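Lecture 7 notes: from sequence to structure.

We start with a single chain of 458 residues. Read the sequence below before looking at the structure.
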Amino acid sequence: EGIGHARARGGGQSHPAAGGLREALRDGLRSRGASLALLALVCASAFIGRSVNTSDGAEVISEGLGVLVRGEAAYGRMPSAEAATAGLSVAHSMYGIFPTLLALLVLAPAWLLRTLLGARGLDAAAALLWMAGAMLCGWAFGRLVRAVQPSASRLWAPAFVAGTFLWPYAADSFMEPFAAAALAAGAAVLIRDGTPAGVKAAALWSCACLLKPILWLTVPLFVLAAALGSRRQAAPVLRIVACFGGAVALQLAANAVRGNAWDVGYGSFALRFSTPLSTGLVGLLVLPGKGLVFYAPVVLLAAFGWRRLALPARLLLFAVPAAHVLVVARWSWWEGGAAWGPRLLLPVLPLICAPAVHAPRRAAVAALAVGAAVNVLGVLLAPGSWIGYAELLHPPADASWPAAGPVRVSTIPALSPISGHAWLAARNLAGIELPKAWLETGTSEVDPPPTAAESVSP
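Now the structure, written as C-alpha cells:
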C-alpha cells in the first residue's frame, strides 16, 4: 500500500480531483462499516436457512433444544427396535456441553419467539448460528492481520472468508469456525498488546479449547510465546498458566457431570491415531481432495511474514498450526468427514493465513481470487452430494479404493470435490454436459450423478 501511494504522488499523471475521488472511494471501502457490510454479505451469500445439515450440528442443536424443552442438557432419542420399554431414551451430544451452550445464544431468543416465527422461521433463525460463526471468524482474522501489520486493509476480513474454505461453513453446521475465531482473537491480543494482556488472550484461547478439546495441545506453545515476550517477568506468565488451569478444571468438571471427566468428545474413537503420518500430511496439504494449498492458496504467501515477525508471533502463527496439522494428520478421520476442504484444519486457518498480509499486494489479491473461485463451488453445491455419488462408484479392476466416500474423494485425485463440483455446476446450473473424466480410467457408475434438486444449494 505504501508503495502504491508513493507512485500516485510521484507519477504526476492523474488529475487531482480524480485522484482525490479515487482515494475517497478507496478509503470508504476500507472503513470499518464497509468491511463489516462486505463480510456480512459474503457470509449471507452462503446462508441456506437450515439449522442442521450435518450429524455434528444435529447433536448440538438437539441438545440445545433439550435444554429449552426438557430443562436439561440432553435430547430425546427414539428407543431401538429391540427395546421393550416405551418412551424416549436420553442422549448427550458427544461434542461436550460447551458447543451446546454456544448454540443456546441463538436458539434461546428464537425459541421465545417460536409462535411468531413458526417451525420454518425457527429453523432458519437457528441456522444463523453457523453464519455467525463464519462472520466472527472473519472479524477475528481482520483483528489478527492488523495486529501483525497495523496498516493492513480492513478488506482482509471479507476477502479471507471468500478466499478460503471457511466460506461454505457459513451454511454447514460445524463448530470449527467459532474455535478459529477464538484462536485468532487470542493471538491478536497477545501480538498487539503483549504479555501484560496475556490473561485476556489466554481466556480467548481457552474458549477455542473448550469447543474443540484437541486444541489443548497447542496451549504449551501459547505459554512459551507469552514467556518469550514477557521480558523475564514471571508474574504475567503465571497468571496465564492459572487462566489455562482454570479452563482445564472447568472442562473436566463439565465432563464429569456428564459421566466421564476424561471424555474429550468423539466417543471411543477420539484417541484413534492410526493414519500413517505421511498419508495424513500429503492428504491435508497437497492432494486436491482436501489439500490446504488448493482450498486456501493464500497460505502459500505466509512465508513472506516469517522475517517480519518477532519470535512470539512466529510461534503463534507458524508453530501452532504446524503442531495442529501433525496431530490431525495422524488421526483416523483426518479428512474431516463429508465436509468441504480440510475441515479439521479450520481452527488454525486464520493463524497460518495472517502472515500473508506481508506479501506483495498483487500476489495476495491473486491468491484470494483463486481461492474464491475454488470455494464458491462449495457454496453453490452441497459437499455431500458429490461425496455420496463417489462412494457408490465401482473402482477400476486393478484398483482398491476406500469404502467411505469422504476418504475416496480425499485420497483419489480423479475424484477431487473441486473437479467434481465444477462438473456438477456445469451440468446442474448451466445445463452443460461435460465428459465424465473419472470414468475414463475404468471406473463405472452404479447410480447416475445427483440432479440439481439433489446437489444445488437452496
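The longest strand covers residues 75-77. Keep this in mind for problem set 3.
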